[in-house]
């Protein structure tokens, strides 16, 4: 009878993680090679391939920081879920970058091999982003086992959808659609299936504390700073890549002003709300993604960021409560507001930019088809994955233990902090007295 | 009657932020373009301009981290002002980089346009640094509205002074004078005007707590590590840029040793003081700025760092209390010790280096003129801005609410942390008992 | 009588630090120059040397972040030793990079001069890593004076051993042997000499608290992300360097899965242990170091990471208690598990790779000799240094004050946090009542 909530992960988790890793090593042995340049002998004179690797490596590292520090710490805002946020983030992403290398590479085999170069590493990191976004929707309500399973399914589906969008001929250099909207709607669909009625009035651990909000700001600021690298890392070198950097830089700056303005506008007494600041300031990076490398002019990018900051903040204030109460979607981190709505806005901006001729070869119809396909695949894929995750033997936490690290982690001092220590001191003092 | 302390920012703040952002978008639409390379057709063969962009981009990102993580977290040392420190830092810098692009670019129009390239982005980030330094002087005693206004004025005045210094023919590659000394004396002049007699004996929230000092160290260490990028980002590529990196690297290392030594020397029982470690270890980066790209030899750079660490630590111990008690300048973060005195030292080092012929074309007289002009412009500009900020309708906090996030932010759990939670538990236990 | 525990560092520490810095400046004046390119006149057309500097600079900065943020914050896991962890880390590394420049450079003089280029800066940072690793073994049980002395001795010995290994003709691009194993066994030998019987049953300050574990994760994640730069920074540009990046990337990813799996497997109720996650996830970076640039194939790198994650976690569970109880080695941070065992594994992997012909010119016998020599030099050097550190006038802390910042630092609020504040409030409430 206790099966559904058997949360001791000792054998389930370790055997799953080890099996996955063994399978990955075998698949890598069969399919994955280094990308050997054509002219190995031309020493001294660096080849084009060598140049690209070392030129893009700093952008790769920026993206890497976004994935592991950015996403990881952004989710530490919960008062008692920081270990899981940053720890399971690392676990999922470490699995995901290996699995993503395979799933994306299988669409581009050369002589039956996936040849690893810097772009494949950037794309592998990108593929993990989708899972980390979806993780935000179900944060605190799932086990590590469930997250490993979600990573396997979501990255496989993501790679198919990405291939579909590329095949259609759509543009999405900063991945507003194929990563952000995809990850958000996949996660929301899974969250819908995993709905927990007992949490509909919230949970005492669902809030933040002062220092956990500061930890989350580490994530926010690293994401904010390095987003120009995210949106430009796989752009065509030269003017396209530069445009992607410039547009993202200014979109994010504009977005900050509107996120702050609307946070103050919608809150009691005009105070700023950390949830908005941590998330809505980033919406400009998401929303400018699809047309980041297009000729939309800096003021065009700023306009996109301006709108993104507004819709994201309003999303937190009005859409999230609606989703929770009416649609039974409990979105822990509000990924709908950071990735969902701004991802849609990015897709729409791409359609408009294509209409206005901002990108040679872009078609509004194809952009729209890519957006629609992405949302559809994400919702269906997320729902199916949700049903798999709902099977009652993956160690999901009971309602009362949600948002609580101590279920899956050794937490110092009986799950509590120094106050205990001082309470003990107090007790001693009382005894002494 | 309640007007001077009407701190509800709901409409004032949001309407100001939105208006500024709308105006910026309009000005960008008129004045700002991408920097299009001359030969767009030469695909495959990267142009000089393209090379510069991608070569300097990692240095830009280092500077970006200094502005947003470095300055932001350095100021989180206050026990109850972390949200404002990192949050308002982000707000000011996001506004400032847009406004700085315009203010600096207007001096260098091409066909009536500002063409954005990587150096303009680096300079835009630089221009925000001045405001963030000044922010440190008035931290905890001003509202977000006041800071937006200060950003507008300070960056405009900074851009004029920078243009003046360049026109004079002075050298200041790492901006000891035009950013650090300028930002510090501007902020101190404003702080003088905004003097609060009621705070002359301190304020209960003005100190740090254990974890807030660790958050501040995140800022310190990122500033420390990336300062070589700050001092070299706009240097002439090649040997000048390399010298700027090497000199800053060794100046900072030497500065750490003297900052620690003097912290122990001046403190009670020889203990180290976090305030010194967080700030004075960085003085070597400030002080070597003006002559960073000059041929001062590594040991010359180390000597500058050696002195900077000493004067900065002594500044905290002896000058800051003097400024507060005698000159009525309440310098919250001690920016005079991190940016003011080391900035002056940097200016003087530049004069000496010019005398010694360490830089072709440099003149000691012109360097001295640039230093004097910068201090003068900063003091006058800061004082005028201070009077504007003193107008009684910008929502500045009442004395008793200084250094307190809860005035402007939704702070979790009635402005307090988990202890409350445990107190409740205790209460429950008492009730149970 | 109080001499051995005279922990007031006022004059000892400050005079030592100042003397060292003055000596360093004098030695730099005599021995250290910029690396001037051969053709200074060829402006516009960047030389090979100039290209190398700016190409490797981002990798240098990644290594820099690992040294100062990575190592510094990794050690903040202790509840009351965060100031020392990140602060003394900065101090040691700032001294060490200057001293390392000299000690390594003296083996490669040109016309009696050490010409600073980017590789010398990277190597200087590397040399500090050995001391920071050893610092982890004695963390909480030593004074800043002792650490300055250890830095001087250890870096000198490290530079000799490195020269020996290079002279032998061994390969160790990512320094599994000459940095990680060396630093670990040096530190363990010193810790053995400094054994404190009174701490054999632990110390109340030796554990972590919730937020200190999160600060430590900042260190972990930055180390994890930038390890590919560490292992490739001084590799031959081109294919070797790319291989080093790719191998490290995948080794680390595989290592995460096995570290998590074994953490859950060996812990009570299958919970994850933060100590394992903070450290064992990095073992893959250490272990793949020696053969990072060799043709071991991605799956070979993953296999090394797979094993490293297992032995590191098992090391924490079984070897560390054994070392403490049987060998009287109290290894505060478990550096034996993060650097010692994985460093040995890396040395062994290098021997096997040489046998398999993965590196042209590599010999299994020479690799084995290099490994044996490194361990031997480290153990002897560490033991000698330990005896020097044991001299009773370096201000080492008494047993009861171990792991406690307040001995050497001004700590806010009588060494305690806000709880005090609330206790006061409670007291007031009681008084009011």
UniProtKB/TrEMBL annotation, chains A, B, C:
Could you tell me the membrane topology recorded for this protein? Multi-pass membrane protein
- Domain of life of the native organism: Eukaryota
Q: According to its UniProt record, which reaction does this protein catalyse?
A: NH4(+)(in) = NH4(+)(out); methylamine(out) = methylamine(in); CO2(out) = CO2(in)
Q: What is its main location?
A: membrane
GO MF: ammonium channel activity
Question: Which keywords does UniProt give here?
Answer: Ammonia transport, Glycoprotein, Membrane, Transmembrane, Transmembrane helix, Transport
Q: Where do the Ammonium transporter AmtB-like domain residues begin and end?
A: 24-391
User: Does this entry carry the keyword Membrane?
Assistant: yes
BP-aspect Gene Ontology terms: ammonium homeostasis
Q: Where do transmembrane segments lie in this chain?
A: 12-34, 54-78, 90-109, 147-171, 177-195, 207-226, 246-266, 299-319, 339-358, 370-389
**InterPro entries for the chain:** Ammonium/urea_transptr (IPR029020), NH4_transpt_AmtB-like_dom (IPR024041), RhesusRHD (IPR002229)
**Cellular component aspect of the GO annotation:** plasma membrane
Q: Where in the cell is it found?
A: Membrane
| Assembly mode | Homodimer. Heterotrimer; a RHCE monomer interacts with a RHAG homodimer. Component of the ankyrin-1 complex in the erythrocyte, composed of ANK1, RHCE, RHAG, SLC4A1, EPB42, GYPA, GYPB and AQP1. Interacts with GYPB (via the N-terminal); this interaction bridges the (RHAG)2(RHCE) heterotrimer with the SLC4A1 Band 3 I dimer complexed with GYPA.
What does the sequence similarity comment in the record state about its family?
Belongs to the ammonium transporter (TC 2.A.49) family. Rh subfamily.
- UniProt protein name: Ammonium transporter Rh type A
Species source reads: Ambystoma tigrinum
Give the organism's phylogenetic lineage.
Eukaryota, Metazoa, Chordata, Craniata, Vertebrata
């Amino acid at each position: 009878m206790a099966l559904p909530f058997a949360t001791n992960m000792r054998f389930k988790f370790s055997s799953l993680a080890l099996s996955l890793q063994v399978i990955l090593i075998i698949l890598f042995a069969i399919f994955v090679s280094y990308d050997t340049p054509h002219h190995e002998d031309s020493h001294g004179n660096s080849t084009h391939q060598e140049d690209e690797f070392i030129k893009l490596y700093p952008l790769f590292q920026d993206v890497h920081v976004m994935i592991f520090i950015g996403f990881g710490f952004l989710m530490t805002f919960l008062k008692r879920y920081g270990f899981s946020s940053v720890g399971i983030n690392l676990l999922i992403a470490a699995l995901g970058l290996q699995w993503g290398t395979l799933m994306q590479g299988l669409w581009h085999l050369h002589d039956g091999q996936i040849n690893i170069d810097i772009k494949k590493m950037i794309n592998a990191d990108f593929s993990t982003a989708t899972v980390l976004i979806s993780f935000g929707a179900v944060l605190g309500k799932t086990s590590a086992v469930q997250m490993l399973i979600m990573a396997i399914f979501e990255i496989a589906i993501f790679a198919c959808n990405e291939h579909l969008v590329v095949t259609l001929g759509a543009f999405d250099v900063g991945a507003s659609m194929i990563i952000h909207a995809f990850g958000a709607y996949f996660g929301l669909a899974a969250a819908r299936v995993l709905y927990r009625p007992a949490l509909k009035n919230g949970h005492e651990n669902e809030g933040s504390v002062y220092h956990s909000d500061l930890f989350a700001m580490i994530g926010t600021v690293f994401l904010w700073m390095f987003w120009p690298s995210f949106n430009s890392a796989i752009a065509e070198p030269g003017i396209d890549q530069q445009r992607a950097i410039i547009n993202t830089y200014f979109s994010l700056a504009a977005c900050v002003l509107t996120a702050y303005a609307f946070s103050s506008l919608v809150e009691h007494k005009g105070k700023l709300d950390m949830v908005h600041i941590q998330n809505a300031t980033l919406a400009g990076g998401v929303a400018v993604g699809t047309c980041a490398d297009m000729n939309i002019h800096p003021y065009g990018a700023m306009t996109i960021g301006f709108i993104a900051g507004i819709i994201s903040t309003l999303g937190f204030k009005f859409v999230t409560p609606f989703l929770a109460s009416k649609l039974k979607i409990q979105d822990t981190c509000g990924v709908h507001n950071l990735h969902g709505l701004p991802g849609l806005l990015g897709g729409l901006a791409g359609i408009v930019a294509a209409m206005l001729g901002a990108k040679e070869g872009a078609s509004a119809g194809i952009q729209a088809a890519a957006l629609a396909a992405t949302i559809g695949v994400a919702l269906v894929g997320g729902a199916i994955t949700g049903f798999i995750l709902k099977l009652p033997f993956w160690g999901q936490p009971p309602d009362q233990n949600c948002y609580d690290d101590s279920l899956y982690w050794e937490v110092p001092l009986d799950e509590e902090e120094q106050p205990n220590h001082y309470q003990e001191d107090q007790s001693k003092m009382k005894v002494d007295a």
